[in-house]
Amino acid sequence: MTETLDFQIFTQTWKIALQDCADAQSLEDIRLQLLGKTGLITLQLKELGKLSPDLRREQGALLNAARDELTQCLANRKVVLEQQGLAERLRSETLDVTLPARPHKSGKIHLFTKVIQDIHTYFCDLGFQTIEGPEVEDEHHNFDALNFQSHHPARHEHDTFYLKDMPGWLLRTHTSTTQIRTLKLQQPPLRIISTGRVYRSDDLDATHTPMFHQLEGLVLEPGIHIGHLKGCLTDFCRHFFNNKDLQVRFRPSFFPFTEPSMEVDILYTNTKGEKKWLEVLGSGMVHPNVLRHCSIDAEVVQGFAFGIGVERLVMLKYGLTDIRQLYHSDQRWLDHYGQGC
Ligand code: DAH
């Protein structure tokens, strides 16, 4: 310790430095310079031990007084700076409560998603279980187990996307694959629906896309007959189109995995008031060969199945003329057709 250190000058000098200090960081710097581990006052205090007892007492008293005074000044300056900071924030962050509120914009559910959710709710209320299946499938699940003969045209490359480096694998062309996948895991009685993407090498135009969605349904229980099929699908169409008097027609058709097979048509009135029969889905009684493939006794259990093209249904219900509108993510379209939660 320098015996010539004048504590008065020392204290005054640092008090001035503290007065000039304009922010919390500079204040902290000064605190460390004085009172930190290697601060001036800390070092001086350590040096006291080297002095003679008399000198130590005298210098110690002066040094402690300087430390106390500067500690007090530091605390005072801290309070002042905090108050100044608060005043500054209150000035700059004023809130004008009279400003009009910003328009509240919340997201909407895509029309397509909403329709699928509603159809699922309808069938789940009837005791159906929803299941999913893979989009990359093998020929067995997509064709063989569904009783497609080897010459069936859907097998040809024209309709099916085969995977180039994986012989026998393809992008599923329909959701009927989920019938097989379920029956291999679950024994009847069962009621399932399954919605998902399917792929066919169709051209892209106003009513076709190479990827579209199907909803598959399957009911297998002892005693199920064609009357259940007709009742279930008629009720569904009336519910979906929100018309309890909707006319529904069952027209003979062919699907390899059902026998008999039927297309389901509705009597549709277009915007000009003209009435037309329009096909909305495919259906039929599950073919015994399909049941046999899944080791189910066709003498004991019967059932029906149906397949719905979801895009077509949505377009009909909402009067859409171009399927591509469903995928374009045009904000104006989404705002208009988007549904509340
Ligand atoms: N899988 C058929 C298709 O893609 C649709 C279909 C028709 C599904 C009849 C069924 C059904 O389950 O019974 O065209």
UniProtKB/TrEMBL annotation:
Residues the entry annotates as binding Mg(2+): 259
Cellular compartments annotated: Cytoplasm
The protein's required cofactors: Mg(2+)
E.C. code: 6.1.1.20
Catalytic activity of the protein: tRNA(Phe) + L-phenylalanine + ATP = L-phenylalanyl-tRNA(Phe) + AMP + diphosphate + H(+)
Residue intervals of the Aminoacyl-transfer RNA synthetases class-II family profile domain: 80-316
Record GO terms (molecular function): ATP binding; magnesium ion binding; phenylalanine-tRNA ligase activity; tRNA binding
Family membership: Belongs to the class-II aminoacyl-tRNA synthetase family. Phe-tRNA synthetase alpha subunit type 1 subfamily.
Protein name: Phenylalanine--tRNA ligase alpha subunit
Taxonomic lineage: Bacteria, Pseudomonadati, Pseudomonadota, Alphaproteobacteria, Holosporales
